[in-house]
Amino acid sequence: MGTDTTIAIERTKTPSTPPTTLEFQDICYQVRHKDGQNKQLLNSVSGAFHSGRLAGILGPSGAGKSTLLNILSGFKTNNVSGNILINGTPIDRRKYRREVSYTPQDICLLGNITVTESLEFAADLKLSPTTTTAKKSAMVVDVLKLLGLSKCAHNPVANISGGEKKRLSIGLELISNPSIMFFDEPTSGLDIIAAMQVVAHLKDLAASGRCVICVIHQPSSSILQMFDDLFVLSEGHCLYRGPLDELVDTFKACGFECPNYYNRADFALEIASLKHEGNLLQLRERAKQQTIEAVGKKVVPNDGPNCGEKDAMLMPPGVVGDQENSTSSTSDRQYLTSEWGQFVTLTRRTMLCTFRDLQLTKMRLLAHLFVGLLIAVVFYDVGNDGSKMLSNASCLFFFLIFVFFANSMPLVMTFPLETSVFVRERMNNWYSLKAYYFSKLVADFPFLILGPSVFLAGAYYLTSQPMELDRIVMLWSICIFTSWIAQMTGLLAGSVLPLELSVFCVPCSVIPMLIFCGFFVRFREMFDFLIPFTYVAYFRYSFEGAMQAIYGFDRANLPCSGDFCYFSKVPKFLDSFDMLENTFVMDVCGLLGWIFALHVGLYASLAWRLKRTR
């Protein structure tokens, strides 16, 4: 590495940082299958990783590599038993999450902001408010140099290469200067050159005094040579733990002879996959003996449930380590930044991403303008003619239909990615769920109002709706509330369902709301047992509110351009839809009730996503 990189490392990790040893003892994890049977994924796995050494977890598919990494990083806590210690002291989970970072295999990043902006927002969220802007900027520049991202610093994240995205994901966690860093298959999806660059950067991070642990999948000989320690898993058992240089000799002592000029990683994987004859049980016992000799008297008795028992958990929180004995108020807080600071930063970031999103903002506004003019041309001058009142009712109905789908479907398409980013950042202790939730609502609100306003600006006048301020405001508010429900429906579906399923489910969920809104079938024509469903259909309140805004509140009879106008009297027209006059307030209350319920549902769905990852 060059001089600039060395300086960056020294700035990010001070030489006075004490060494860190991450120990884990008798880690067990089980899952329940659909048939009701429990499957043990990890069986009394023990080991230790040390700062200053790059460690790799190796094993075939299904061996438990990612599961072990998730448990050690604190991501997974349910159905887990065993002990995790730092420098011989049991962890306090809240403080532990501040000391570690976890980068998953599938990288989810916000593509509409630049590389520099991503690091700047990370610094604002993860660093103490007492850190000056100049110091934050210097740290961002150092991380860019350290990870070789200076040449793409001002490029949108969506336009950088896969290797650069991997390095950016490392930099985002490096901002908070964690002492322990976990990476799940950091080289997956990269060519050999990009993979070597990533591992070389991880090697530098370990050499600077951090504890760096990676899950690696079929590394080449050149990549494997960069690792200092290996931890080999097979069917949830540890086969080897120790220095890379001792791997071949250990296997040879147990009857597994590695051929000359053979990739040691491939050989270890073949043994773990039971493709070689030898004493596999002896390998397991040797790994256990190494653990006992390494830990010695420092082993903490595990009074929790044994492997295979139901609802096993990690032992109660203790202290993160010797460096965490501070009694200051800052060390007791889960986040260095206040929730208000998190809210402000997240709101700025969300608004910036939304403004730059072509599909979510610019195309959305153009669609509102274009479709508003199209509806105005088709339904031109129908709003003030007694012979065209049914056509005007159809016009109002199309107003609501378009406003709903134009504001729900773009979020269905874009929010699943943002939810994945939220889960990664939240689990890495960037911010609280509450701060993210309210920032999302506030940041999207201006666009929520702007779309329907642009739509109605032309359509209302050209369709000859009554030019009375109170009626304009009432119809506008109904469109805003309908757009609000649409937005919350899109967010809720995007947070719970995968993209391909949410695109299907949202339109399907609207069908019952349309059937029971009173436009297609009058309420008096329905079976009695179907009437209660009309009171839970939000499109009933939207359509009824729009009709009340235009025809309610004692509107005068409309002029008739034909020979005979059956609905020239307004009360008669409302009665044909089974509507009473002046129920606008009830309709608004019905829409607000739906908005409140969807807000609660969105918060619960995000909390459920976080819980499911554990």
UniProtKB/TrEMBL annotation:
Q: Looking at the UniProt record for this protein, which Gene Ontology cellular component terms does it annotate, in alphabetical order?
A: plasma membrane
Q: InterPro entries of this UniProt entry?
A: AAA+_ATPase, ABC2_TM, ABC_transporter-like_ATP-bd, ABC_transporter-like_CS, ABCG_dom, ABCG_transporters, P-loop_NTPase
The record's section on PROSITE patterns has: ABC_TRANSPORTER_1 (PS00211), ABC_TRANSPORTER_2 (PS50893)
Does the keyword section mention Transmembrane?
yes
Q: Where in the cell is it found?
A: Membrane
Alphabetic keyword roster: ATP-binding, Membrane, Nucleotide-binding, Transmembrane, Transmembrane helix, Transport
Record's bilayer topology term: Multi-pass membrane protein
Checking Pfam families in the record gives: ABC2_membrane (PF01061), ABC2_membrane_7 (PF19055), ABC_tran (PF00005)
Extract one GO molecular function annotation from the record: ATP binding
Which segments constitute the ABC transporter domain? 22-260
Task: List membrane-spanning regions.
Answer: 365-383, 395-417, 437-462, 474-495, 501-521, 584-608
Family of this protein: Belongs to the ABC transporter superfamily. ABCG family. Eye pigment precursor importer (TC 3.A.1.204) subfamily.
The entry's protein name is ABC transporter domain-containing protein
